[in-house]
Structures are given as C-alpha cells and as structure tokens.
Write a structure and sequence with these properties.
This protein is of the alpha/beta class. The chain has 4 helices and 4 strands; from the N terminus they run αβαββαβα. The protein has one domain: Rossmann fold. The relative contact order is 0.16.
C-alpha cells in the first residue's frame, strides 16, 4: 500500500495528497496506514481485525473514518472496543449503520443496502474532499 501511495503521489495529476479506502480486511490496512505512515487520510468500510492492532491507536495520527456495523464478522463487543479506543482521538470519525450487514456497500451483493451505501459514499466523498483539497 505504501508503494502504491508513493506512486500515486508522483503522478502529474496528483496534488501530492493521497488517501486510501478499504473494505473488510482492507479497512484494517487503512487503519494501519493512519497509524504507521503519513498518508493523507483513510476510510475503512466494515473493517475487520482492527482490534488485533488496537494497541496502535496511540500512533493514529492521520484522519480516519470507520463505517462500522454489527455483523457476522465484527461482533458487538469488538465494535464497542473500537469505539471506546478510537473515538477519543479527534482525527477519528465513526459512522454507524445499525440496520446494515457486512458488505452493505457492495453493489449487487446479497447484503447491499442502497440507503446505507449511498450515505456512506456521500460521507466518504465529503471526507476525501476535506482532506485532499482541490
């Protein structure tokens, strides 16, 4: 991910700011990018296994959004842990989707939920606009 970030950063079309978005396991990778690198910002959709690296929360120094929900891959206790540990950080925003299931934003998937997917996309684009600039 870091190599991709630096490649994109060097493109003439890029203003030098790069952000990441990840789904499921990719959400955990985005969390780690915000803890371990100077990427512009990152968004995680229903990130899994973030709790395995919760001790890195103290290193989270880049803006991060988590689209969180209770589903078969992320238990309620895990979401409570994530909220408890992440929400005190002013760089973290957590959006909840209580009626949605894992992969709610995967268009055409069995658990696709159009209203929630559209809300998450709008919030993600707003976040990227804020942190990427013009």
């Amino acid at each position: 991910m870091e190599e991709t970030w630096h490649f994109l950063q060097r493109l003439p079309e890029c203003n030098g700011k790069v952000c990441a978005v990840g789904y499921c396991l990719g959400g955990k990778l985005c969390y780690l990018m915000c803890c371990r690198t100077d990427i512009g910002c990152a968004v995680a959709y229903y990130g899994t296994y973030i709790e395995h690296h919760i001790r890195e929360t103290k290193n989270l120094h880049r803006p991060f959004v988590l689209h969180a929900l209770k589903d078969r891959w992320v238990q309620a206790e895990v979401n409570e842990l994530l909220e408890r540990r992440l929400s005190p950080n002013p760089l973290v925003t957590i959006h909840k989707y209580p009626g949605a299931d894992h992969a709610f934003a995967r268009y055409g998937g069995k658990t696709y939920a159009k209203p929630e997917a559209e809300r998450a996309l709008a919030l993600t684009l707003e976040f990227f606009t804020q942190h990427l600039g013009g």
